[in-house]
């Protein structure tokens, strides 16, 4: 008898495996953290075997913790990073580490794309603003800079395809929602763009074909069963890209709804029935995990990872105190931040550790601080890190509503950041509007589980699964006095970024970094 469904989120800094009952209640979680590699400034790579090991360990962990009978789990869906790719041979052996979505190596290539395709035409075809952060420019980098690797590769796959193969998939295909950060999708057809592939000399045969998400691709193999603990023969399904899964898991399946996920990165996703005009190229349009639907998206590449950076770089006192008290260091860091004043006494933190993405797409933007005085302490600076992330997200909220032509009916919060009471209230106050919480804040993994359940026939449709499994609770109202302070600080934040951008400071700094350390 089927009592449960499972979902996997193969993230950038860790893999999460969750088991849910058929009402959407979280039964248990397993998690394994891993790291990325940074062989050169701006480069981000990852050993995809670390993801697989993390999934196996997290799967066994959740099964042990919950004591769920694996035979009572009816399906498994998977969510994975988008824009991350790895070349494999015919035996599915990775030929090198993955190039991760946040990798910024393709500056020269994006200039070539601009000169030979043009920003306007590229946006018209792909639905994406031109950026070196999309996989498209990095594929050109591989073709131009690593021709032997390109020639040797049988296929270039997203993490999801490789992980599904390890689990027991009998098919090889990708889906539109997983291609959102690839930058070479034809946004009208939701398939590979022959024009864009031809322009950079990328052979379509080296890419997996595109089908829809919510499709069963096989069952857990005997070997995968031994490694993960899941029952052999359990249906496995193509889920989708992480943020499209988060949209499903937060119930964003009609126009007018949006959700913001704060994880390693932060992403805002809204359902749209069709791409909208965006003359300034501020947001992305791509395939939703809802078959034959689209989404509108805005990105911040460094969000939760900035707080992790703060913890690892400056948080030794909190680490030591947390260890002695049996707490998480983040609890103490957040407590310090909560006791600091709104607006941080004029301190601004610029969180552009991996470029500024939506709505300005400046690949060479970097982080920094402004306004530091002797009046500032550890708590003020910790709060400043959190506020800086939300200021950048406000730029995305404004850009997406401008394109949509109206305010969103509701903004729902998900991801690790939604577990923080302070970060949730901060978002309501910075945006100046109510935000909505969900029973399950890890909407990405829930969305993967929903897609797996619909694909395996546990539910008759995504809509039915969402109705049964997605539940909201609690509207957080903004403190409008705080909003006034935040708006003043936000305007300085935005003006500072634009001033540095327009003065070419970020590009000059990138050139010096490359010259001496690159």
TrEMBL record:
Source organism phylogeny: Bacteria, Bacillati, Bacillota, Clostridia, Eubacteriales
Domain spans labelled Carbohydrate kinase FGGY N-terminal: 4-249
Native organism: Acetobacterium bakii
Family: Belongs to the FGGY kinase family.
Segments forming domain Carbohydrate kinase FGGY C-terminal: 260-455
Name of one Pfam family that matches: FGGY_C
Name listed for the protein in its UniProt record: Xylulose kinase
InterPro entries registered for this protein in UniProt: ATPase_NBD, Carb_kinase_FGGY, FGGY_C, FGGY_Carb_Kinase, FGGY_N
The entry's keywords: Kinase, Transferase
């Amino acid at each position: 008898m089927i009592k449960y469904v499972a979902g996997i989120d193969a993230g950038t800094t860790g893999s999460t495996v969750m088991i849910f009952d058929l009402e959407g209640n979280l039964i248990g979680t397993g998690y394994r953290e891993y790291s990325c590699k940074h062989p050169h400034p701006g480069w981000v790579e990852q050993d995809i075997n670390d993801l697989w090991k993390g999934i196996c360990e997290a799967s066994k962990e959740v099964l042990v913790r919950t004591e769920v009978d694996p035979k009572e789990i009816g399906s498994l869906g998977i969510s994975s990073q988008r824009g991350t790719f790895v070349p494999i041979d015919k035996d599915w052996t990775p030929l090198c580490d993955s190039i991760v979505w946040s990798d910024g190596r393709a500056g020269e290539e994006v200039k070539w794309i601009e000169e030979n395709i043009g920003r306007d035409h590229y946006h018209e075809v792909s639905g994406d603003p031109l950026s070196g952060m999309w996989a498209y420019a990095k594929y050109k980098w591989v073709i131009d800079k690593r021709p032997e690797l390109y020639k040797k590769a049988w296929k270039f796959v997203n993490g999801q395809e490789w992980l599904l193969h390890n689990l027991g998939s009998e098919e090889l295909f990708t889906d539109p929602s997983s291609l959102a950060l690839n930058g070479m999708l034809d946004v009208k057809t939701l398939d590979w763009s022959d024009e864009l592939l031809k322009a950079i000399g990328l052979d379509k045969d080296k890419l997996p074909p595109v089908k829809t998400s919510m499709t069963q691709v096989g069952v857990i193999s005997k070997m995968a069963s031994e490694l993960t603990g899941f029952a052999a023969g359990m249906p496995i399904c193509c889920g989708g890209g992480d943020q499209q899964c988060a949209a499903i898991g937060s119930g964003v399946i009609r126009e007018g709804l949006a959700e913001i996920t704060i994880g390693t990165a932060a992403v805002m996703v809204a359902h749209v029935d069709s791409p909208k005009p965006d003359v300034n190229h501020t947001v992305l349009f791509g395939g939703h995990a809802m078959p034959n639907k689209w989404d509108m998206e805005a990105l911040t590449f460094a969000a939760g990872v900035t707080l992790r950076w703060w913890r690892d770089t400056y948080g030794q006192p909190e680490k030591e105190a947390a260890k002695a008290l049996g707490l998480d260091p983040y609890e103490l860091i957040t407590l310090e931040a909560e006791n600091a004043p709104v607006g941080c006494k004029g301190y601004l933190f610029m969180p552009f550790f991996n470029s500024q993405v939506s709505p300005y797409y400046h690949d060479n933007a970097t982080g920094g601080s402004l306004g530091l005085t002797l009046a500032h302490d550890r708590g003020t600076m910790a709060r400043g890190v959190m506020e800086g992330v939300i200021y950048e997200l406000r730029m995305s909220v404004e850009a997406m509503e401008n394109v949509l032509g109206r305010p969103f009916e509701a903004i729902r919060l998900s991801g690790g950041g939604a577990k923080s009471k302070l970060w949730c209230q901060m978002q309501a106050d910075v945006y100046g509007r109510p935000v909505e919480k969900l029973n399950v804040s890890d909407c990405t993994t829930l969305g993967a589980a929903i897609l797996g359940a619909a694909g395996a026939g546990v539910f008759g449709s995504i809509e039915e699964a969402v109705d049964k499994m997605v539940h909201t609770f609690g509207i957080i109202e903004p403190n409008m006095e705080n909003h006034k302070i935040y708006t003043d600080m936000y305007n300085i934040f935005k003006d500072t970024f634009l001033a540095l951008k327009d003065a070419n400071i970020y590009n000059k700094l990138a050139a010096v970094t490359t010259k001496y350390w690159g």
